[in-house]
Amino acid sequence: MNVFRDSRPAAAGRPPQQPPLPQPTTGLRQRLGELRGPGVRPRPLDARALAALAANPGCRRRSLLDGAGIDKAALASALGSPAPFGQSQFALARGNSFEARVKADDGADLMRLVYERMGGGAAPPEPGRVAVPDLSAAGPEGRAARTALALREATTAGGWTLLDHPLLALEVAGSPAYLEPDAVVVHPDGGWTVVEIKSFPMIDGAADPAKVGAAARQAAVYVLALQRVAAQVLAATGRTVPVRDRVLLVCPKDFANRPAAEAVDIRRQLATTRRQLRRLTKVEDIAGQLPPGTTFDLRLADDGRTATRPAAELAEAVDAVEAAYAPECLAACELAFHCRGRARAAGAVESLGRGVRGELGGLRTVAEVLAAAGTEAGVNADGGAGADGVEDADGGAGSAAPSSDALSSDAPAVEALRRAAALRAEALAAAGQARHRSYGTGDGPADGATEEAPWR
C-alpha cells in the first residue's frame, strides 16, 4: 500500500488560516490554576466528557470543574462519594487490541468497510493508493494545526486518505478543548467521515441501542470540531467541504475479533449537541461568582494520590457552585453520587428525574409535594419521612408547606397530586376491606399473627 508519510517538520507546512480558538486571559488562567491547586496540571477534556456536559448544560458545577481541568474522580473520592464505574483494564486492553486489528495493514479492513457502507459511488480504495499522513507534532496546538493541514491537502489532492487519531480543536464555554477521534477518512469527492471504533459487539448486524446512542453523541462532538476545520479550508481555498452527518461505527462481529460496521445517522445528536454547547455558561463567569479563596485543591500527599484536605472543606467548595443533578448523571459524571446525596438530603424533586421535576412545576421539594397532595406525612425519595415538620433524611425538619400563592400558581400539578392521593387512599381502603373479609372466613393468618402489607 502506498502510504504517504510526510517527512517535513510540522512547522514546515503553513497551516490553513483559521480563526484562533479563544485562549483564557492571564487572569482567568491564574484563577483556574488556583482552583486546581499549586502545581496541578489541568485534566484535558475528551469527547465523552463533552457529550455528557452538553447533555446537562445547566450544571454550572460540571462546566466549571471540566473547564478548569479538575480531576472529578479524585475529587469525588476525597469527598467520600467515589463513582463505582469506569472502564476496566481488561476492557481497555480488549478495545486497544480490536482497534489495532481494524487498522492493521495501514487500515485495509477499515477502508474496505468505509467503502462498503459509505462509498457513495466512488472508486474503491485500491491497495497502494490510500494515503496515511503523519500527524505528529509538538503539543496539542501543533497537532491540531498539523491535522488541519493534512485534511486540507487530502481534500485538494482527491483520492482516499486515512487520518489515524487526528487532533481537533473546539471551543467549549469560552475555553479550547482538544479532541482525538479514532479516525477520519477523506473520500475522493473531498468529503470527511468520522470513524468510531468500539469494543462492544454487533450481534446479527445490531448493537446495544444505548451504547450506539452514546457513541453517536460522542461522534457528534467530533463532527462539530471537523466542521470548524472545514470552515478554515473554505476560507483558505474557497472549496466547500462536506462533513458527513453519518458516521461509521465499527464493532466486533458476533463476539469475534472480526470487524463489522454500520453507518449511523447523527443529525439529531449533532443539532442537540450544538445547541447545548452554545448554552454553556462561560467558565470565566462562573469562576467570577465564587467566594474569594475558593479552591478544589486536594493537597495531595508526597505519594501524589492521597488527599490530605478535610472532606468538609472540599464539600463547602463544591457546594459553592450550583449543580443540576438528575439520575442520568450517575452514568456520566464522577461527582454524581455526591450530588445525589445532596439532592436527597434537601428533599429535592430533581432526584426523582427530570420528567417528574417538569410535571411538578414550582414544587421543589418532596415535602412540598406531600403537603400539596394533602397528606400529613409520607416517605420521601431517600426513604425518610418528610412533610409538615416531619424529620427528613438528613435529620432536620421537613420544609414548610407551600404557600397559597405557590399552590395557586401550580394548580394543575396540585390538582393531579390530590387526585392521585385520593385514588391511593381509595385503593388502600378497598384492599383493607378485602383483607378483613378474608380474615372473617378463616382464610387469614392465625390468631396473634400479623401480615405485612404488600404495598409497603
Question: Any key phrases for this structure?
Answer:
alpha+beta, disordered N terminus, 5-stranded mixed β-sheet, 456 residues, 7 strands
Structural topology:
Layout: H1 26-36, H2 47-55, H3 60-67, H4 72-78, H5 89-102, H6 104-118, H7 139-157, E1 161-164, E2 168-172, E3 175-179, E4 183-186, E5 192-197, H8 209-237, E6 246-252, E7 259-265, H9 267-279, H10 283-288, H11 311-319, H12 336-345, H13 354-359, H14 366-373, H15 404-409, H16 411-440
Parallel strand pairs: 5-6
Antiparallel strand pairs: 1-4, 2-3, 4-5, 6-7
Q: What does the model show?
A:
The chain has 456 residues and is of the alpha+beta class. It is 44% helix and 8% strand. The chain has helices at 26-36, 47-55, 60-67, 72-78, 89-102, 104-118, 139-157, 209-237, 267-279, 283-288, 311-319, 336-345, 354-359, 366-373, 404-409, 411-440, and strands at residues 161-164, 168-172, 175-179, 183-186, 192-197, 246-252, 259-265. The strands form 2 sheets. A 5-stranded mixed beta sheet has the order 1-4-5-6-7, sandwiched between helices. The N and C termini lie far apart (69 Å).
